Fold:
Amino acid sequence: MVNLSKDIHPLTDFKRNTSEFVSQMKKTHRPVVLTVNGKAELVVQDAESYQQILDRLDRLEAVEAIRLGMAAAEEGSVKPARQALAELQEKLGISS
Structure:
C-alpha cells in the first residue's frame, strides 16, 4: 500500500538519492510513486514485492479460470474430454 505522505517523490529526488530509495523500498516493501512535473509518471518497487504481486495475480487468474469452467459446466456448455478429443482428432485429420 502506498503511503501518500511518504511514498510520492519527484523523479529528480529519486535520481539524486537512488540508494536511499532502494533501502527504503527493501525495508518497507512499499512502492515509490515518482512524479514528473507534479504528475505521477512511474512506480518503482523492490523485486520481492513485485514477485509477490505476480504470484497473487497467477493465483487469481487460476481461480477465475476455475470459476468460469464450473459455471460453464453448470450451464451444460462443456463436453466430456473423450468426446472433445475425438472431435479434435477428426477436425485435424489425426487417426487414433
Q: What stands out?
A: Strands lie at 8-10, 32-36, 39-44. The chain has two domains: 8-45, 49-92. The radius of gyration is 24 Å.
